[in-house]
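A common beginner's mistake is to predict each chain separately and then try to dock the pieces by hand. The better habit, illustrated here, is to supply every component at once so that their relative placement is modeled jointly.
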Amino acid sequence: MAEFDKIYARYLNAFNAHLDEFCTGLNCTPGILNDSLIYSLKLGGKRIRPVLMLAVADIIGTGSDKVINFALALELIHTYSLIHDDLPDMDNDDFRRGKPSNHKVFGAGNAILAGDGLLNTAYSILFDECFKGNEFISAAKYICDCAGVYGMIAGQSADLLHENDSTADEETLQFIYDKKTAKLITAAVVVPSILNGGKYYSELKALGKKLGYLFQLTDDILDVEGNFDKLGKSLGKDEEEGKLTGVKVYGLNNCKLRVDIIGDDCIKIIDGLEGDASFLYDFVSYIKTRLG
Amino acid sequence: MAEFDKIYARYLNAFNAHLDEFCTGLNCTPGILNDSLIYSLKLGGKRIRPVLMLAVADIIGTGSDKVINFALALELIHTYSLIHDDLPDMDNDDFRRGKPSNHKVFGAGNAILAGDGLLNTAYSILFDECFKGNEFISAAKYICDCAGVYGMIAGQSADLLHENDSTADEETLQFIYDKKTAKLITAAVVVPSILNGGKYYSELKALGKKLGYLFQLTDDILDVEGNFDKLGKSLGKDEEEGKLTGVKVYGLNNCKLRVDIIGDDCIKIIDGLEGDASFLYDFVSYIKTRLG
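With all components supplied together, the output reads:
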C-alpha cells in the first residue's frame, strides 16, 4: 500500500492546493460569513470524493485538469451537508474531524447560512464550467441531481424520518445508504466519464453505488467500534439518536461479512475497466482497513 | 390601477400555472420531503419576483416563454430563503403568509432540508436551461451570484450579525437592503435583459436595486404599522429581534419620506426605457400603496 499512499497523497495535495487557492480568493462580507465557510472547508478530512474523482479522471484518460473544479464543487456540497447534518435540529453533533462543529463555533444561525453559502457557491463554480461545452453542463447537472431531492437530500430526509423507527427494514436502510452516502460518491466517479464521452459510464455508476455502501457500512461499524482520535467525531451517536444503521439491521458480525462481500463486488466492477486501475483496487482495501 | 391589476393577475396566473405543473411533477421520497417542499411553494404570496420577470421580459421584447423557468427557479430560491429565515435559529417566525411556517408544520430538521432541497432544485432547473446557449448560462449564473455569498446570503449574515447592535449605521442598513432584499429583485429584472443581448442592462440593474430598497423600506414600515390579516406574518418582530431596520435608522416619518424619494428614483429610471413600461410605473405605485 506504500505506492497507494503516495498516489493518494499526490491527489490530496493537488486538491488541497486548489481548495486553498479557492479559500484565499473568498472575500465575503461580513467576515463571520467568510470565516465560517473557510472553517469547515479547512477542517481537513480524507477528501475521498475529490481524490476519487481525480484518480478516475486519470485512469480513464479524462485528465485531472478537466475535473478539478468539479472536485472542488463536490467537496463544497459535501461540506455543506456535514454542516447542516451536525446542527442541533438534525444529528446534533458537537464534533467534526476532531474539531468543534461549525455551529459550535459560529452559532446555529450562522451555520445554516454557511451551509447554504457553500451549496450556492458550488453551483456558482459549476455554472462557470458550463461555458466549456455541453458535456460540462451534463456533468454539472449530474452532480446537482446527485445532491438534490432525489439524491442526497432524500437520504437525509429518510435518515431523519426513520430515527427510532423500530419497523424500518433493510429496504429502507438501502434507500438511505444509496441516497445519503452513495449518490455523492457516485458523482465523484461518474463526472470523469461524462467529461470523456461517457467512457465506462455504467461501470463507474455501479462502482460508485457499491463504494458508497462500503463506506457507509464501515462508518456504521466504526460508530460502534471506532475511537474518537482516529475518527474525529463523537462515537455511539447512531444508537443514541436511534439511527437506522447497518449494525442495527444486520448485526455487527453480519455487517462485517457484508463489508467483504461488497468489497468483492467493487473488485469485480474494477476488473472490467481497462488501463491501470490499481489505485481503485487499493482504494477498496483502504476503505476496508478503516476497520483496522 | 384596474388595468394594472388585470395584467398583474395575468402574469401571476401564468406563473402559478407553471408552478403548479412543477409541483405536480415533484415525486420525492420520503413523502414528508415532497410535502414540505410543496407546502411552502403553495403558501401563495404576491410572487413579485416572477411577475416582475415576466413583465420586464414582455416590455423589452424578450418574451415570457424564454424566462418562465428562470422565474420558477428564482421563486424556489426566494422560498428556500424564507424557510431558513423563519427557523428558530434565525428570525424565529411562526407564521408566513398567514399560515404556520414550514418548521412549525414539519419540524426544524425537515425545514432545513426543505430549504436545501428548494435551493438545489432551483439549480437543477437552471442547469437544464444552460443547454440552450451561452446567454442562458450567463442568466443562470447571474441568479446564482445574486443568491449567494456575495448576494442574498451576505445580507442574511449581516442581518443576523447586527441584531441588537446599537452602533450599526445607515451604511450597514444599506448593505443589508442591497444584499438581502435587492439582489433577488435585481435578478428578476436583469435576467430578461441577459436573455436579450443585454438590452437596458444597466438601467434594469439600477431599477432592481431601487425596487429592492423600496420594497424593504415598506416592509420595515409595515412591521410597525401593518396588520396581520393583510401581511400574513407576525408584526413587531423587527423590534422584538432587535433588527436593524429603516425605521430604526431613519425614524418612521423619515422612512416614509424616503419611500417617496426612492419611488421617484424608480420612475426616473423607468422613463429611460422605450416601449410600453406602464406596468412598471404602476408597479412602483403598487409597492408604495402597500402602506395603504
